[in-house]
Amino acid sequence: MLSKASPGAFDVTTHATAEEAADAIRDREAIGGLSVAPTGLTVQTAAGAGAPYSALLKGIGAHLAASGQHVTYSELAPLPQDDPAGSAVTTLGLPLIFGGMASAAALVLAYRGTGLGRLAGVLAISALGGLAATAILQLGFGVLEGSYWLTAAAVAAGIAAISATVVGLGSLLGAAGIGLGAVLMLFVANPLSGLATGPAWLPQPWGEIGQYLPVGAAGTAIRSAAYFDGAGAAHAWLVLAAWIAVGAALTLIPRRRPEETA
Fold this sequence. Notes:
Layout: H1 2-5, H2 18-26, E1 32-37, E2 40-45, H3 51-66, E3 71-75, H4 88-91, H5 93-109, H6 115-140, H7 148-173, H8 175-189, H9 206-210, H10 214-227, H11 234-252
Parallel strand pairs: 2-3
Antiparallel strand pairs: 1-2
Protein name: ABC transporter permease
Transmembrane segments: 88-110, 122-141, 147-167, 172-192, 234-253
Keywords: Membrane, Transmembrane, Transmembrane helix
């Protein structure tokens, strides 16, 4: 039925039991599941992975229920009661980007210290930003769940990846580097991030490409921390670490000073 309704849209994996399917969903290896038993059909959803997937699977369940089948629903990664639409992760997009870019611009244009000093500033500002943003959303508004410290670390890593990259480009190219970093993060990484829906909802291969950019990787790490106890985020953490390392390398590249003329 899935293949007939949307040819090529779904990559279906069969599991021996409903428990195995549920484990795959909790480990972020699948967006949801349909468990068929003699007593009827169970629709397994994970709203934390992205609201569109849950709505799609519930629509399939409603269609089958209308045809006379007995359908039940099992939510494996529920959204907080105060955020039923799952918009909390989406709202972090601009703070991630502008927090990273603003701190980078300040460190490049206003700070006259060493490259190591700039990188220390990146890490300090990112840590404070991650702690503050997560405290506001989770402790203040109650729209995030899961480990506060792990979620804060994911937010901080996202800010650091963006900031370090822009600092590196700015240190290398000056104001032009900051502009290049802004274009990369705002007009490339942000649209391909899948923050609002999860990357699988985007046209492919663009959704997959977005997971190799800082905003998309940060979104995946944050979703995993907030709704899946950190599962399925290894790739995202590696991507964020790689961008931080690249930014650090660009920042620390020795540059020759122009020779003075008599």
